[in-house]
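Q: Can someone sanity-check these two? First one:
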Amino acid sequence: MDEVIYLLKNQPGKNDMRDPTNKIEEIKRYARIRSIGQREAYQAAAVGLKPEFIATIWKFEYENEEYLKYKGKEYKIQKTYIRDDERIELTCSSKVNNEENAYGST
């Protein structure tokens, strides 16, 4: 595993005034990053998706997070694939314009 990614986990809580808040926890993971193949890109485009890369991590390290950060940029995890070797592939795409940050304003 070569690259550092951060899985983004929403930590709901309350502030001093008991108002609900969202804190984003960044969970550091080491991943193997690979680009999307031409065939995969065409298949995804056919259903309106634009994946950018696949991050592969250990299956036990993933807890259904919806977003990750890689090289300072946030990405949406569009699809997961559990492999036979105890790893999971996370297919990632850039966030769309109306997504403020991973879980809205904080």
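And here is the second, same format, sequence then tokens:
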Amino acid sequence: MVSMALQNCPALVLNADFRPLSYYPLSLWSWQDAVKAVIADRVAVLSEYEHAIRSPSFSMLLPSVIALRDYIRPSRTPAFTRFNVFLRDKLECQYCGNGFPAPDLTFDHVTPRSQGGRTTWENVVTACSPCNLRKGGRTPKQANMPLRNRAVQPTTYLLQDHGRSFPPNFLHESWSDYLYWDTELER
């Protein structure tokens, strides 16, 4: 048996159709929440760690992959959040094209608010600080800084697809079959 700290045993949570509830952030539950859900019969265990938990009258292997028994319909329209804008734009500045960690990014109004621009999916893009400062209170055309991609409202599917490009820091080997089963295979 492999010795491993319990906090290092999260469970990958899949919807009833065996797709992850989300890719970025990856849908994970703590071992405690996973065990509670198993005992309440709200999930099916698909894979387990080699680590068991025990009480005087009970023993079970910790679940590493669980699937909800009831399907949760994904939202058709994702929430308009700073992070979802970054995810839509693949964590890349839409002016220079360079990729950055999320904390190093800002969002920029394509048509500045000072010129009547609104804070909407269609008017906000990801920008690095130098490009955002350089553009200032001008439109991309006025600043001679063309956008790499047009700002549009993404679908939940698009955000999930972009999220697959950013693997989490921890991936247990039992998860791989469930995370990438719907991606195109190499020929």
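A (reply): Looked at the second one. Helices lie at 31-39, 82-88, 129-135, 140-143, 156-163, 176-179. The radius of gyration is 21 Å.
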